[in-house]
């Protein structure tokens, strides 16, 4: 049995997709969905899916061992950041070496770093008249969007692309690839 913990800060559609993907897989369990945001849509989605949730504070995350202890107690094999916006503290990276992955809605190393999330990324991609965008799944290190790249997929932007239409295309790519990449990592 492999166990994954899902971290999200907002809507949580990737969390829903991942949970649905693994629902029929007896070898993968999701003991916990964690969020820093008590108003995040992910909480309702997780509830609808019957998943346990935990809301944590800045103090819990940056000035205590609480989250690390919980992940250890649950026997988590892989930590998955699915739309999670806080920087991961060095203590947590040291506790889970090469076991924390993130999804980013652009082709890193471009359009990453602090403040580059969600619509900010798509607006910048369009403003710069990029011909392509896509998704990146990568290991997490102490910097935003900087760890070793595991997977990328890309597509051509349409002439009339808007941040909204781009976000939709990115989400479809995320839904298709993220669960499969997680599944593959869990088999290694
Ligand atoms: C996703 O597109 C994800 O790639 C992005 O936030 C969105 C969350 O959507 N993550 C980042 O921008 C991280 N820098 P969701 O809440 O519907 O899954």
Question: What are the defining features of this structure?
Answer:
188 residues; alpha/beta; Rossmann fold
Short description:
The protein has helices at residues 13-22, 41-48, 58-62, 66-73, 90-95, 118-127, 163-187, and strands at 2-7, 28-35, 53-55, 78-81, 100-104, 132-139, 149-156. The chain has 188 residues and is an alpha/beta fold.
Structure description:
The protein is α/β, with parallel strands linked by helices and 188 residues long. It has a single domain (2-187), classed as Rossmann fold, CATH 3.40.50.170. 38% of the residues lie in helices and 22% in strands. It contains 7 helices and 7 strands, in the order E-H-E-H-E-H-H-E-H-E-H-E-E-H. It has helices spanning 13-22, 41-48, 58-62, 66-73, 90-95, 118-127, 163-187; strands at 2-7, 28-35, 53-55, 78-81, 100-104, 132-139, 149-156. The protein has a 7-stranded mixed beta sheet, covered by helices on one side. Helix 1 links the parallel strand 1 (2-7) and strand 2. Helix 1 packs parallel to helix 7 and helix 6 crosses helix 7 (163-187). The longest helix is centred in the last third of the chain and has 25 residues, at 163-187. Glycinamide ribonucleotide binds next to helix 1, strand 5, helix 6 and helix 7.
Number of strands: 7
Computed Rg: 16 Å
**Helix fraction by DSSP (H/I, runs of at least 4):** 25-40%
Q: Give the oligomeric state.
A: single chain
* Mean pLDDT score: 97
Spatial shape: globular
The chain-level structural class is alpha/beta
Strand content: 15-25%
How many discrete structural domains? 1
Relevant CATH superfamily: Formyl transferase, N-terminal domain
The strands making up the biggest β-sheet line up spatially as: 3-2-1-4-5-6-7
The CATH topology is given as Rossmann fold
Uncertain regions spanning at least 5 consecutive residues: none
Largest sheet: 7 strands, mixed
Kindly report how far apart the N and C termini lie.
Answer: 13 Å
DSSP summary: helix tally: 7
Order of helices and strands: EHEHEHHEHEHEEH
